[in-house]
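To: structure desk
From: M.T.
Subject: fold request, one chain
Message: Could you run this one when you get a chance? Sequence is below, nothing fancy, just the single chain.
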Amino acid sequence: MRSSWKGAITFGLVSIPVQLFPATEEHNVSLHQVHETDGGRIRLKRYCELEEREVPYKEIAKAYQAPDGRQAVLTDADMAELPLPSKKVIDVLAFVGDDEIDPLMLSKAYYLQTATPAAAKPYVLLREALTRAGKSAVTKITLRTRESLALLRVHDDILILQTMLWPDEVRAADGLAPEGTFDIRPQELKMATSLMDTLSEDFDIQSLHDDYKEALDSLVVARLEGAEPVEAGEEGAATPDNVVDLMAALTASVEAANRSHGRAAPAKKGTPRKSAAKKTSAGGSSGKGKSAATAKKAAAKKTTRKRTSA
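Reply: Done. Structure tokens follow.
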């Protein structure tokens, strides 16, 4: 695995040479565009609409178009001269509690490895200090041509750097939450909590798979071998746009979750009608339960009398 960046973590007078390695990778199936009738590859050419000709990559620059139509052309030389003080530095700005940064702001993650043998001790010292204090470091770093905020934190026994959005890049959620007052019954809240508990037991994230990718892989293999693709399973039931009986839906969900975990559904509490039936049955003169209970009481009374007389 090749490093994607080399530089140093700096805080105060301490400098730790490190290199970054991407911590994640996506396993997407790479597809390209072709002409459906004959399979010919579709190529996208860099075409200048003013000169009406294809231009080489070396003649291409970036530009910004203002709302009034004016255009500012920015060359590679212009971009290279922009001030980027954190170009080869992970500059620590502040140390914060592990729960002070909203996960909504976090983006791509990188592993940090020491770049020199001498960096090992300060690397471990920083790792242990962050762990003991329960803190992470908010930093600045330049990756490629853009300066970004990043969170430096401990993951197992390694330091990781996770790029962050700038505060003004996170949209406000104004007007998106349900409006009004809702009467949440205790039974509904209890059943929802029960469902959460059931779905939280024995969770193993390694058991989850990308069903769409697996189906696409199978389709590609079938096409390469000239075979008919395996028919996909039926799509799940459509999600209802309204919930008529929330309690019934929660109850059914809990029962389904219990069945999937190999457990019987929780026993339902008896209703007053069932209780009355039990009392009637117990009160019958020929009931076996009553006879046994009467015999036990009689035996207990005899024993008490004997002990008293003794």
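Reply (cont.): The two ends are 91 Å apart (CA to CA). Let me know if you need anything else for the meeting.
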